[in-house]
Amino acid sequence: MGAGIALVGSVSALQPVSVCNEQLSSRVDTNDAWIRSRTGIAARRIAGPGETLTSLATAAAQAALEQAGWDAEDLDLILLATSSPDDLFGTAPRVQGAIGARQAAAFDLTAACSGFLFALITAGQYIRGGTVGRALVIGADQLSRWIDWDDRSTCVLFGDGAAAVAVEACEEPRNGLLGFKMHSDGRRADCLSLRQRDDHVPLLEGHSSQKGGFETIHMNGQEVYKFAVREVPAVLQELLNSTGTTAEQLDWLLLHQANQRILDAVADRFAIPHERVLSNLARYGNTSAATIPLMLDEAVRDGRVRPGDLIASSGFGAGLSWGAALLRWGGPGGARAPAAPG
Ligand code: ACO
Q: Are residues 153 and 181 in the same domain?
């Protein structure tokens, strides 16, 4: 096998129910003008009865396989980036079972809104190591499960969704993962958390056992905002330096879709025109691990991102965690990409 990892296909699966800002304002004390001006969000998809993380992720995985023209049995690895699993023991194996990928190892990877990028980089390491030939990297979250619908400071931000990207080993000229950086800072974990509840059940005389169950999402929005506008430009600069790339060479900036103001601030820091910054926040809000592949898939489908395009991507969020990757889109059929910059 070659030394590269080619990005050959992407597919999104979104829940059908769209909830707009006006509808939310009938449930909680908020309004469309506030949400749009502070975040850029106009609507989000919310999973309904019978829709689960497994069903969403499976739909994305199945469609990505079809788009790549692969049989399920060709897959060696399925990585599911999620913070909202159906099963704490792992949701990826359920997806693997549902699509019939009998040869594939499947496991979940949790890094909140950095999850997809961390999973793509992880798959890339297995591929470069020669143990995996074909993988599906899925970003899927159903954070609506963990929202306090009475907390207007968080409930307006998040939505549900899933998307999958098919990646395979290739020779170096088709390599689509040209460089990456990853960071974590657990000292700031409380800025954004979804923690285990401190509930206990009596077990023996004088002893109790912790009872499973989680709180709802807690966020210090201003601290997370400051973190994002400081660390995302810094990690992108690290990425550009390490790959010998300039901001002018980038075709697209593909950031985690958390807040339009963050996207604009990062673009301005690199003097990247806003039309080269991919954004679908208005329609979907923050779908956590799903935002980057959802956005990539949409831009590939509408023809903005074309085979050979150079994309700087950055994920950031709870953990705190953040990272960046320089990507070259390959496209179905493995279109031959130009050589890497630098
Ligand atoms: N509707 C109306 N008013 C609101 C709402 C709302 N939905 N939410 C808050 N307000 C009010 C507040 O109560 C406050 O009122 P006050 O001045 O009377 O006290 C006022 O608006 C300002 O509140 P702030 O919290 O200061 O608003 P801010 O401008 O910081 O915007 C926001 C809040 C949008 C959350 C912003 O801080 C942000 O985007 N932070 C980053 C979030 C993020 O990027 N998360 C990504 C990671 S997600 C992950 O990893 C899972």
A: no
Say if residues 110 and 128 touch (Cβ distance below 8 Å): no
Kindly indicate the confidence band of residue 334, based on its pLDDT and cuts at 50, 70 and 90: very low
Residues 6+ apart with CB under 8 A from 205: none
Residue 277 has what DSSP assignment?
B
Task: Give me ligand 1 centre to Cα 155, in Å.
Answer: 10
pLDDT of residue 322: 98
Task: Examine residue 271 and state whether it is found in any structural domain, yes or no.
Answer: yes
Claim to verify: residue 71 and residue 20 sit in the same structural domain: yes
pLDDT of residue 14: 75
Contact partners, residue 305, CB within 8 Å, separation at least 6: 251, 252, 278, 296, 299, 311, 329
Please tell me if the CB atom of residue 34 comes closer than 6 angstroms to any atom of ligand 1: yes
Report the residue among 25, 222, 320 best suited for mutation to probe ligand 1: largest number of ligand atoms under 8 A from its CB.
Answer: 222
User: How many CA atoms does the CB half-sphere of 243 hold within 13 Å?
Assistant: 28
Note whether 140 and 255 are same-domain residues: no
Q: Identify which of 116, 142, 143, 153 to mutate to test ligand 1's pocket (most ligand atoms within 8 A of the CB).
A: 153
In a domain, 337, yes or no: no
Each residue's pLDDT tens digit, 223-280: 999 999 999 999 999 999 999 999 999 999 999 999 999 999 999 999 999 999 999 9
Judge if the beta carbon of residue 116 lies within 6 A of ligand 1. Answer: no
Active site residues: 113, 256, 286
| CATH for 263 | 3.40.47.10
Q: Which domain holds residue 234?
A: 177-190+215-281+288-328
Number of domains in the chain: 2
Atom 11, ligand 1: which residue's CA is nearest? 153
Does one domain contain both 36 and 125? yes
